[in-house]
Task: inverse folding
């Protein structure tokens, strides 16, 4: 039996080795692409943060500058620094009230990631009060309410998101799961 297998596999050494080599090279190429892409994104964020930081230090910053720096720091997962800039943007905001909802939502996101759920909920509520059709803020509010185990409030937030965006998969999925949970709990 072993001799028969050896005869069958004769001549396959080259193609199998080539296949393994090509597979290894493809994995390395994909890995290198992902690493280079992340480095370039990080570099772009660092440069943007640096220029906005300089503008803020020279006291020539607008409320949008504080907001943009807060968003950049959020993307870099530096939530404490982002919160400071977003709070400053909120204080000096001179734009449209409905656009201020984005500041509140970003601030809520930072608080949520810093495990300050009550503060996050407060900011999300302000965001949806200022801009009732802000679906992302409704989704975030639902998520924060879920974390706080306020199931009914979370369900209301997701259902509100669905009134503005009926095809919102996040709100549909979470709403369905919450309905099932509430039925199981008999609430």
Result:
């Amino acid at each position: 039996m072993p001799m028969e297998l050896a005869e069958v596999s004769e001549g396959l050494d080259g193609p199998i080795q080539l296949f393994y080599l090509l597979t290894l090279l493809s994995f390395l190429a994909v890995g290198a692409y992902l690493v280079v892409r992340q480095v370039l994104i990080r570099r772009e964020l660092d440069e943007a943060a640096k220029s906005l930081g300089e503008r803020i230090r020279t006291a020539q910053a607008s409320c949008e500058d504080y907001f943009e720096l807060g968003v950049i720091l959020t993307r870099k997962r530096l939530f404490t620094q982002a919160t400071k800039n977003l709070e400053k943007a909120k204080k000096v905001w001179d734009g449209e009230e409905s656009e201020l909802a984005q500041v509140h939502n970003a601030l809520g996101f930072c608080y949520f990631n810093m495990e300050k759920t009550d503060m996050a909920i407060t900011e999300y509520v302000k965001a949806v009060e200022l801009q009732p059709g802000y679906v992302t803020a409704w989704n975030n509010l639902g998520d924060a309410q879920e974390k706080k185990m306020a199931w009914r409030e979370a369900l209301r937030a997701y259902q509100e998101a669905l009134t503005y965006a009926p095809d919102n998969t996040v709100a549909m999925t979470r709403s369905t799961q919450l309905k099932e949970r509430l039925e199981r709990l008999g609430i």
Notes: The two ends are 67 Å apart (CA to CA). The chain is about 85% helix and 0% strand. The mean pLDDT is 86. Residues 54 and 60 are 9 Å apart (CA to CA).
